[in-house]
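Supplementary Methods. Inverse-folding protocol.

Structures were first reduced to a discrete structure-token string of length 106. This string, shown here, constituted the complete conditioning input.
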């Protein structure tokens, strides 16, 4: 049985500040929900926008976290479609790299 209820899918393209705001929001998710959430970031940027130290930290905090850097650019819609095909959750949330929520309203 699939334990992952929600896949948060984040296509990224050359906007590090936006990804950092999203990561800040992700870190505010209550602990007991984290095992039911999958987070996938697919980075289509010119160079990786997340450093390995942060990636490794996120993998510890979220057991279902993955960061994929596309060595060859897929383009916006292909990157989104790849995220959707990678997802394992019952529900999908495609969150653009410049969208985030108000942490106070989790």
């Amino acid at each position: 049985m699939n334990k992952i209820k929600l896949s948060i899918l984040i296509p990224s393209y050359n906007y590090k500040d936006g990804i950092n705001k999203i990561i800040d929001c992700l870190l505010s998710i209550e602990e007991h929900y984290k095992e039911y959430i999958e987070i996938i970031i697919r980075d289509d940027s010119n160079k990786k926008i997340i450093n390995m130290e942060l990636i490794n930290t996120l993998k510890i905090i979220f057991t279902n976290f993955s960061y994929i850097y596309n060595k060859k650019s897929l383009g916006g819609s292909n990157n989104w479609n790849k995220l959707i095909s990678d997802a394992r959750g019952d529900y999908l949330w495609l969150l653009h790299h410049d969208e985030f929520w108000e942490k106070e309203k989790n």
